[in-house]
Amino acid sequence: MHFSRHRLVILTVLITAELAIRVCIAETTEILNITVGKPTILSSRSNDNSASLSVSRTGIVAAFYRSSDGSTHYYRTSVDGGLNWSKEKPSPITGGANGTSLRDGGVIRATGSCYKIFPSWPWTARVFRFNDDYSEYSAEMVTIHFPEAAVTYREIGAGPPDGPRLNKGKMVQLPNGDVIAPVEGFLKGYTKYQTFLLKSSDQGRTWYHHGSVPSNLKDPHPEFPGEFLGYGEPSIALLSNGQMLAMMRTQHSHLRPDYKPMYVSWSDDLGKTWTQPIPSEPHLMNINPTLAALDNGVVACVYGRPGFHVAFSIDDGRTWSERISFTDLPVGQHTGQEDMIKIGPNKLLAIGSVPGGTKVFPITVERTKDPTPGMFELIGQVLDESGDSLAYAKVELGPNRYTTEYRPIHSENGYPTVTTDVEGRFRFESAKRGGALLTVEADGYLPSWQHVWVKPGLKPVEFRLKVGQVIEGTVTDGAGKPLAGVCVQGNDFSTVVRSNMLFDKNWHVHTDLLGKFRWLVENTLPTEANVRFVKFGYTQLSTRMSISRFEQPIVMYRLPYPENGPKFECVRVYESLPMDAGFDDDAWSRSPIASNFWSSSKAGGRDDLVEAKFAYDDSHLYIIARVGTGDATVSSIESTLEIFIDPGKHWSHLGPYQFAYNAKGRIKGAFAWNCPWPRARTTQNSDGSWTISTAFSWQILDMSHPRADTEVGVGIAHIQAEEGEQAVQRLPPQGGPPVVFRYGRLVLE
User: Fold this and answer.
1) Is residue 342 over pLDDT 80?
2) Which pick of 118, 249, 270, 404 has the fewest CB atoms within 10 Å?
3) Rounded to two decimals, what is the model's pTM?
4) What domains, with CATH codes, occur in the chain?
């Protein structure tokens, strides 16, 4: 075949153009243009946990919030998408965000828990019904037919117990007019929170169980720090592809910042059945999600604790590639409880507390194609505090994550890593567009890390490192296996300062998959530190110890709490039991002696006699325990007794309530776990034994109104001293001190 010169030129141009187009198409990246408008300050209150939003079918928005002093609830309305707001009015809504607009008119808002007056009756809940402009509202009790739902472990005073909770949302109205509402709660016999869907076909007046998200009684990812709640605080959204998406909280009440990520699940049949939940990716931390699906296919999720954020997904919730943040304050300074609604095809309103007050933020999300290549050059410089360059520092370009706890640079991670030149400069030639985490390490300096967004126009990243050292340690279980996700707290002060232990990111860390943790110490290395090791389901360790002790592994023991251990009678009394009453005194004569506990021994624990008696009244649970062999030649005076109380069908917080005593009284430096110390008195006996008498308030045990036949878990750990030392004055060496664990369940008479 023969081509003329002109035809060859034309063909070459066409081929070149086609290749250019293909290259352009291949390099085109889909991005989000997120714009946050000017916020409106509704109140000067900067730590509000009840702010929420609703929108009617006519587009009128209502914002609900607390007054500046927190004493009153108000609401305002906006007819222009949150740009301008009406004067505030008293609000009937004091919390909860579960509701929706109705296509036939009006807005419904549920207020929280369901209640059951009599066991044979259906559940009932309070709902407020507004008209389209929110000028009028009425309250009504709706009926919920869900007989499989159980009472939650908390009780509200002496009133009816609460059941499934409608405190999150939003509700979704299906094309056929049915309304789907997400709720959290328990099925009978379950010990972890579950997510359910209710359906109403009469505008929210009557509800029936519609579907359930698969539950897990065991933590699917125990390597993550914190305590697994189950799946609670669910939010749902109807996606453009016809699927439903659910986002759920999995972290229980916790020490900050011990967080488990929120989990996601999908439904292909409008909420009847759901996929097994999986962690959000990257991990979104960690409570109170609210989803919104925009017309352009973008899914948004507002959430908090720590901080107040909105994350965005362009793949139906499988990954959350973009995020905006309004504050990063931790719990204690910020509740992390916000809300959000869709107010237009691609527009959102978010409400929450930030420094300066409770504010409403308008957000616009545009989904566009960007012809800019998806890989960019990322450059920066590492300096010391004086501004001098640091050569030979290692810099790692890690994947996007929204948590910022220090993770060391390891070659086995496989992440791109470079070394700074003599001027402290570093360069990554091909950084992928999107979020990433840069980590820097240099000898003699504290590591540093920054979250960056790789995109066109990214300025050079600068690090200024502080002089310091890294303390490393390892935590294992009793069998010597590494424990991941252990919360390790400490400080180098002469007395334990809780706020520092909880908030200081350098002294509040978690063990990795190898059981290793690292503290970052500025300037001089202390010789001792106050430390606490906590992991759900394990005995916590709390003491002051030498830094050199970390050269040996720290051992934590599993709490072998049986679900169906031996039961002991807890007698009802009608007068407070005196703390100075002895074990054999008349005041305790009605209480049978409990000694046949379910028990296990660690490190060769001596099976000394431990006897206990139990009683209760409306205000307190009373326990008296006698510890010792009864042989005056074998002293138990230097041993320790830890008492564990589990007030419900599942473990509260990071384990049961935990209290440590010895014969001299409460252990100095030990913590009453998540509550005030109870009243207590110890007595040393002439036969080498000792007695502890204590009274636990039901209020601090999450049980405001004890009832007959209620079961309460109880545990007694007898930690025996070694070589004449008190058992808890130092953390145990590898192998640990002799310990005998005893467990059972109290049955209230």
Assistant:
1) yes
2) 118
3) 0.76
4) 30-370 (2.120.10.10), 375-465 (2.60.40.10), 468-556 (2.60.40.1120), 567-748 (2.60.40.1190)
